[in-house]
């Protein structure tokens, strides 16, 4: 093991130890425009239980028909949160809903504390303990099912731009899809010049705002995590290119996970981790405030020890199939289904490329029958000199069937050979020897 590998291993193990020792914190929920965050006095943020938070967010997101809401409880929540007529008037403005879920933050309630004007959470959700462990599971499940809730209740077309970015729209927006495809859909994200240009622009902008800090500049330059750079650039693209991208009824849902990756690589107290949080919070704050009349935004910040791995999919196989709107209190457990390679059928090559992230760069979208789907190809690793086969609707899963078949047939062949060898040995042992050899083996009597 070389020195570099040893250092990487030590860093990874130390981050794991830190992750175990991280104290659980409250989940923080922020709401933009910031007027809504002023519903409580500074330093006096309401703390809700998990079930109360689900009721409030379901009502705010407009998906309450999927839940048995107790409206007396909602009235009590309004009193707890201190909501007034100002917020109600703000909510009446038709704007694109934006739901951002940020994972991997050590202190969620202070996520926006480094901004010029500290932003207080709209409310917090009580930190996890032994008593509310099941409730937290229910809350995470609620977050996972937000996209399927919207698809269940409204006549919306889902656009899965990537695993973390989902947009639900009343009508298919070719302008947004083409823009996204031009930036992120064709080339590998690690070598995409346009994506890199967005990242460099973000760094320069942050440098200007923190020009007095040479430490900040060095810390930013140390950020090389590809998942963070890609995720931040994509988020900036979505929030900054508002014109012609969205309708008022659209829903933008984003699950940001790359901060967790940086935490695991660098540790809790590293400048890189701290600077990554600052850049992300700065980008969200600037973009949402700049477009406050376009977006009705909710930011849910999760602590390090609780992560939303992915959304549950309510996969529309054929975009022509529409579900009737406003289904009353439909069971969520029956609404989500996992997509498989057999049900990924797209009407156009472009929608196939967008929905599968260009077949995860492990295949091509080809017309099969009346629709397009991914045809996976093998990839060769020059370092390990090994070939990897891929499968799944987006070619993201390793296909182990080749190795399994080789192992299976090799085992069968060796078993047959072993059985045949044993039978051959028995048959040779049971054969009668020729007469000459038989006579030679007869014991002669010796005369004493």
Please describe the structure with a list of short key phrases separated by commas or semicolons.
448 residues, alpha+beta, eight-stranded mixed sheet, two-stranded antiparallel ribbon, 15 helices, 15% strand, elongated, Vacuolar sorting protein Vps3844 C-terminal domain-containing protein, signal, Archenteron_Induction-Rel, Vps3844_C, transmembrane
Overview of the molecule:
The chain is α+β, with helices and mostly antiparallel strands and 448 residues long. It folds into three domains: 281 residues, no CATH class; 51 residues; 32 residues. The protein has 15 helices and 14 strands. The strands form four sheets. It has an eight-stranded mixed beta sheet with strand order 2-4-1-8-3-7-6-5, sandwiched between helices. A two-stranded antiparallel ribbon has the order 9-10. Strands 11-12 form a two-stranded antiparallel sheet. It is elongated, with a radius of gyration of 30 Å. Keywords: Membrane, Signal, Transmembrane, Transmembrane helix. This is Vacuolar sorting protein Vps3844 C-terminal domain-containing protein.
Mean pLDDT across every amino acid position: 72
- Envelope shape: elongated
Helix content: 40-55%
| Secondary-structure content class | alpha+beta
Helix and strand sequence: HEEHHHEEHHEEHHHHEHHEHEEEEEEHH
Measure the end-to-end span.
Answer: 77 Å
Strand % is 5-15%
Radius of gyration: 30 Å
**How many domains is the backbone divided into?**
3
What is the strand arrangement across the widest sheet? 2-4-1-8-3-7-6-5
State the total count of DSSP E strands: 14
Characterize the main sheet: 8 strands, mixed
DSSP summary: helix tally: 15
Low-confidence stretches: 15-22, 36-42, 84-92, 186-191, 314-343
Oligomer: single chain
Pfam family, one: Vps3844_C
Transmembrane segments: 406-426
Signal peptide: 1-19
Keywords: Membrane, Signal, Transmembrane, Transmembrane helix
